[in-house]
Amino acid sequence: MTGGKNPSRFSRCVAWLPALIFSALLALAILGAVMMQALTSEELHVQTATGDGVVGQQMERVEAEIRDLAEEYHFDADRVIAKLSADELRETDRQMAEWWTRIVRDGVMDETPRWSSSELRAEIESTVDPASLEADETAGDIAREVGYSLEKTVQKTLMPVRRALITMGVRVVTRKVDLPAIVRLTGQLPPAAMAVCLLLAGVIALLLGRKIRVSLKYYGAAFAGAGISVAAGFGVLCLFNIPGRVREASEGLANQMSRLSTTIMLESIGAAAVLLAAGYACLVLYQRGTGKKKTRNGEHP
Amino acid sequence: MTISRGDTDEGRGRGKVSTESRRGKGIGIYLLPLLMALPFVGVLILGALRFGPTVMKIIGIMIKLVVTA
Prior knowledge:
The structure holds 2 protein chains of 2 kinds.
Chain A: H1 9-14, H2 16-40, H3 42-49, H4 52-73, H5 77-83, H6 86-106, H7 118-127, H8 139-158, H9 163-176, H10 179-207, H11 212-239, H12 242-249, H13 251-297
Helix pairs in contact in A: 2-10, 2-11, 2-13, 3-6, 3-13, 4-5, 4-6, 4-8, 5-7, 7-8, 11-13, 12-13
Chain B: H1 16-29, H2 32-66
């Protein structure tokens, strides 16, 4: 499908406008898709929250808390730590990630997942030093107090956010707007933008009289321009330094988010590289075609 | 031997001057993506300069409110 006559100068000039819109829309669609996936993908959030490095650091923090409590309440820290299960922490992390993504994706506020210290309480009760108990205290009382402190520590370690504020915020927002609908609509914007890009590609081809070789210049410039725009958009996002600010507030949450940040970075840079490569490939093909044509006829297409 | 105009380089429009201008045009085409990205990047930069400090302050306050140590 190469069309008939060469496109007029007017058509060639006008075709730059849809190419410009194509480039900007494609960049917005890709940046939007990357951000939507980062915010709403349950799989990604679960992987981020349950990574071995993250769970390992959470275990260290909980073990340190158990040792501090053991010094204060006089029970055997090693036996209690031996009962502490990384799989249980990982499972609670998974439930927390699902809870969070359900809020962001569906606007649904479920009950916050909780880690239970019931298994550890039995061990604490059996290892408390009876000589350290006060007159009206029992080992069970100590176990309950320590268990409660541990649950608070684990909740803060697994999800170092003020859940009451998030709950209140979501309730206020969902009373005023239909949050799930807005999230669904926002999620549909990147694919809609891609569809418009396809339409614009068709418009460019029509304006250029369906001359594929001539269209390559416009497509190449648009793709590579979109790649540069995506890279610039990611650069501006980096300026906000959200991971750095989160790390200042909470080391634990920053560690949990690091995988998320890496995913956003790799996807953005990867998309920019692919677009640049595709764009410049189109331009090289156009140049080669132009060179051959010029050799034959002595004129530019 | 008759040499027609179409047999020579000048006749075919290939000469030193046209080769150099073709090379110059070749480099120019690879700068087109930069021109295409200019409006988008310009809006991003202007937006970042205009709203960036405010957005960063809001993000900082929200992180401090929501995140615990």
